Fold this sequence. Notes:
By secondary structure, the chain is mainly alpha-helical. It has helices spanning 26-42, 53-67, 72-83, 98-109, 113-132, 139-142, 159-166, 174-183, 187-192, 224-236, 255-271, 290-293, and strands at 3-7, 10-13, 21-23, 198-199, 204-207, 218-221. The chain is built from twelve helices and six strands.
Amino acid sequence: MSIRKRGRRSYQVRVAPFPAKTLPTQEAAKRHELELLLRRSQGDRYVEESRTLGQELDAWFTRRRAAGGNRDRTLEYYERCAKVWAPFRATKLADLRRAPLEDFITERAAKHSRSAQNELEHLKRVLHDARGRGQRVDDGVFGIPPIKHRSREGRALTVEQLYELMSWLPEHTKRLVLLAGMVGARQRVWFELTDDLLDLKSATMEIPPALSKSRRAHRIYLTGLEASLFREQLLVRAPGTRLVFPTPTGRRWTRSGFLDRVWLKATAAAAANDSVFEDFNFSLAAPHGGVAHGASRNGSGGRC
């Protein structure tokens, strides 16, 4: 007997060489038994019941998170890459076709080539794993050519433009953008900066190796205006946090959270008055210090 009743609403199915599985009804147990018998009879020719793209994207992420070894930033990157495929989440893998996927990602690449490049690579990686797990995936999808990306040159804002952009931001965040434009540190530095890294008496900001692109600690010397802006920020930030620029609830910003909740809204409003802010990227906002103050950062090099 492949099916055994183990208790009320408990039916165990055993079909070698597959692991046993317990189901709540006899009907469900019979369906599962037939599926296992079919799989055993067809061997390598058997194809799993097609799952949706959304199910496979979520399952792939769950496996990566359970495996460990991935940093929070890496997991956030996977989530961000998967998010863009929302229009296709309900589509079964066996029904995915090259043309609509290629048209979609090509249109996105026209505005965000680097993001589209990463998102297409992530989709192919997930589908490749799905195929290895028994799912049927059209070969044409893997034939979508990679997105080519050309790095854009940074656009520097004047001090007046920085203040204009700052005026469209909420109180808890506006000094982040102004200081980023003046000091020139990377986005991650601002999201993870804690108050113990600031010495406002000596007007310095320490960048530890973990936040430095070069993986070396260094110090940035602040102007009087920058030190004053930091003092203001420490007064208006959410209480009970060590982060200098936290969310309104005192938590660390994620790249996507800041983009959706703050940056896109502010730049869209600012662009309505001045086209210089159209499609303006946070990573391009820092003018390397020299634009704001006419000199380099006391040997710190501005960006870190």
